[in-house]
Design goal:
It contains 16 helices and 17 strands. It has about 475 residues and is of the alpha/beta class. The protein has a domain of about 325 residues: TIM Barrel. Strands 1, 2, 3, 4, 5, 6, 15, 16 and 17 form a nine-stranded mixed sheet that branches. A five-stranded parallel sheet has the order 10-11-12-13-14. Strands 7-8-9 form a three-stranded parallel sheet. The two termini are about 35 Å apart.
Length: about 475
C-alpha cells in the first residue's frame, strides 16, 4: 500500500486558516470561528476501537485538538468559547476514499459536491477517478485557498480502461503510453490513479509500476483483472468488494471483462475459494474500499432514496431516479439481486477485516447516493454488516486517514490531531442513524453549519 500522496503532502500540516482570509462564499456557512473552542459534555466515538466515552470535553485551539478527557477533569481555560453539547456525540471528520466530484451526466459537480460532502461530515476525501481532472484539481485548490467551503480534496487522475471500456476514459494502449499518462498527471498534481473494468493486464502493470515510482497509489474497479492478479501486480486498493470480483468465474479469459454475477450467486461466503482471495489480498497489503451505499441501490428490496436526498436532486436527476425505481419495482420478483446476495456482500467485508484486511469507505456517488448522505449511509450499513459502531466509525475515519498517509494528523480525536470533527445530535453509540444528524462540522478548527451548506445545494445535484 502506497500511503503517502506525495504531490499533496504539504496540505497535511496546514495550520488553521484565518476566517478573514476566506471568501464570503465560505464565510457565510461558518457558525463557530473562535480560535479557541471547548466542546463540553459530549459523548466521544473517537475513531479508534475504544468504546464510546460519555461526558467528555474537547479543547480546540488554532485548528488543532489541544486536550481531550472527562469533563470533570478538564478546566476550560479563560478565553475559550464554550459550547455546552450535552446530549450530543462527536466523531472525527469522515475520510472518504471513493468520493467522486462528478455526478453521472455532470462532469464536474463544482458547487454541490464540496458543499454536500462537508455538510455530511466529510472533511477529507479522495476522488477515486476523475471525469474532469483539471476542473477537479482547481476545485480542490480553490477550497484550500478559502474561495469556497469544502473538504480537503485529493484528486485522482482520469480513469484508465481498455479498448472495450467507456469511451470517455483514458485508454493507453501500450506500457509506454501508460507511462506517459502517469507522468503527465503526476506533474499536474493528482494524488493517485484508478484502473477501470476493461483495463488490459500490460497497461495495468505499467500504471502501477510507474505510479509507485512517483510515490503515488493505484486503486481499481476491476473486472478484466481478478483481485488476485491485481494484488500480485502490486495494486494498492480495490473498490467495491464482493460484487466486482471476477476471481470465481470458471474458465475466465485472460484480461477480459466477463459477467460475474452467476459465480457470485452460488459462492459460499465461508468457503475456501473466497478465503483464498481474501488471503491473497491481505498477504499483499491490498486495501478494500467499502461502497455499500451504491451497492445497496441495486437491490429493490432494500431502502432507496430518502426524502432529504431526493430534495437535493435536480429535476432531470429526479426523473432518472423515478424511472429507475419503476424498473426496480417491475423486476422485484425476478431480480437476481436478492437478499441472499446482499448478505454475501456484507459477509465478504466482515471476513476480510477478520482476516486482518484494511477496510476503508466511500459512497461512489450516483443515482440517489449523493455526497455526504452516501457516506453516512455507508456507516449505517457497516453496522448492519456486523461491525460495532466504534469499528464502523474507525473504518470511515481513521482507516481512511491512514490510507492517505494522514493517520498521525487526522481521523482520531486525540491531542495534537487536526480539529476535523463532527458534532451529532443524540447518542450515536446507541443509534447509528444519528450519523445523519450533524449539527456542526469542524474542518481545521472552523465550525461549519451543515444546514446552511445543504440549503445551498437543494435541487442542484446533477446540475452543477
Amino acid at each position: 500500500m502506497i500511503a503517502l500522496l506525495a504531490s499533496l503532502a504539504g496540505w497535511a500540516g496546514a495550520s488553521a486558516q484565518p476566517v478573514a482570509d476566506l471568501s464570503d462564499r465560505a464565510r457565510q456557512h461558518i457558525r463557530h470561528d473562535a480560535p479557541q473552542i471547548a466542546l463540553v459534555g459530549v459523548r466521544l466515538v473517537d475513531g479508534s476501537d475504544d468504546p464510546a466515552r460519555a461526558n467528555q470535553t474537547v479543547l480546540i485551539e488554532d485548528g488543532r485538538i489541544r486536550q481531550v478527557g472527562p469533563t470533570a477533569d478538564i478546566s476550560v481555560p479563560d478565553g475559550f468559547a464554550v459550547l455546552d453539547l450535552a446530549g450530543h456525540s462527536v466523531i472525527p471528520g469522515l475520510v472518504g476514499l471513493h468520493n467522486h466530484l462528478h455526478y453521472p451526466g455532470t462532469p464536474a459537480s463544482h458547487h454541490t459536491a464540496p458543499h454536500l460532502y462537508l455538510a455530511g461530515g466529510v472533511t477529507t476525501l479522495f476522488s477515486a477517478g476523475s471525469a474532469a481532472p483539471v476542473a477537479e484539481l482547481n476545485m480542490a485548490r480553490a477550497v484550500e485557498r478559502g474561495y469556497g467551503p469544502g473538504p480537503d480534496m485529493r484528486i485522482a487522475a482520469p480513469y484508465v480502461t481498455g479498448p472495450d471500456g467507456n469511451w470517455v476514459m483514458a485508454q493507453p494502449d501500450t506500457a509506454e503510453a501508460a507511462h506517459r499518462f502517469v507522468d503527465y498527471w503526476t506533474e499536474n498534481g493528482v494524488a493517485g490513479f484508478k484502473l477501470y473494468r476493461h483495463v488490459t493486464p500490460d497497461v495495468a502493470r505499467a500504471v502501477i509500476t510507474r505510479a509507485h515510482a512517483h510515490g503515488l497509489p493505484v486503486t481499481g474497479h476491476l473486472c478484466s483483472l481478478t483481485y488476485r492478479q491485481a494484488a500480485e501486480m502490486g495494486i494498492d486498493r480495490i473498490e467495491h468488494g464482493f460484487l466486482s470480483m471476477s476471481d470465481l468465474v470458471a474458465d475466465k479469459p485472460e484480461g477480459v471483462c466477463t459477467a460475474t454475477l452467476a459465480s457470485l450467486e452460488t459462492s459460499d461466503p465461508d468457503g475456501e475459494a473466497i478465503g483464498a482471495v481474501i488471503a491473497t489480498l491481505v498477504d499483499h497489503d491490498v486495501t478494500l474500499t467499502s461502497t455499500l451505499a451504491i451497492i445497496e441501490s441495486h437491490f429493490a428490496h432494500r431502502p432507496q432514496g430518502d426524502a432529504r436526498s431526493l430534495a437535493m436532486l435536480a429535476p432531470e436527476a429526479r426523473a432518472a431516479y423515478d424511472s429507475r425505481q419503476d424498473a426496480l419495482a417491475a423486476r422485484l420478483e425476478t431480480t437476481r439481486f436478492t437478499p441472499e446476495l446482499f448478505g454475501r456482500v456484507l459477509a465478504f467485508e466482515r471476513r476480510f477485516v477478520a482476516a486482518g484486511g484494511h477496510l476503508v469507505a466511500g459512497p461512489d456517488t450516483g443515482r440517489h447516493i449523493i455526497p455526504g448522505h452516501g457516506d453516512q449511509r455507508n456507516v449505517e450499513l457497516l453496522v448492519e454488516a456486523g461491525f460495532t459502531v466504534e469499528q464502523a466509525v474507525r473504518i470511515a475515519t481513521h482507516n481512511g486517514a491512514v490510507e492517505l498517509g494522514l493517520g498521525t494528523d487526522r481521523g482520531l480525536i486525540r491531542a495534537g490531531y487536526r480539529a476535523d470533527l463532527v458534532v451529532l445530535q443524540g447518542d450515536l453509540s446507541a443509534d447509528i442513524s444519528r450519523i445523519r444528524h450533524p449539527q456542526i462540522v469542524f474542518r481545521n478548527g472552523l465550525g461549519y453549519d451543515p444546514e446552511s451548506l445543504a440549503e445551498a445545494a437543494v435541487g442542484q445535484v446533477g446540475l452543477r
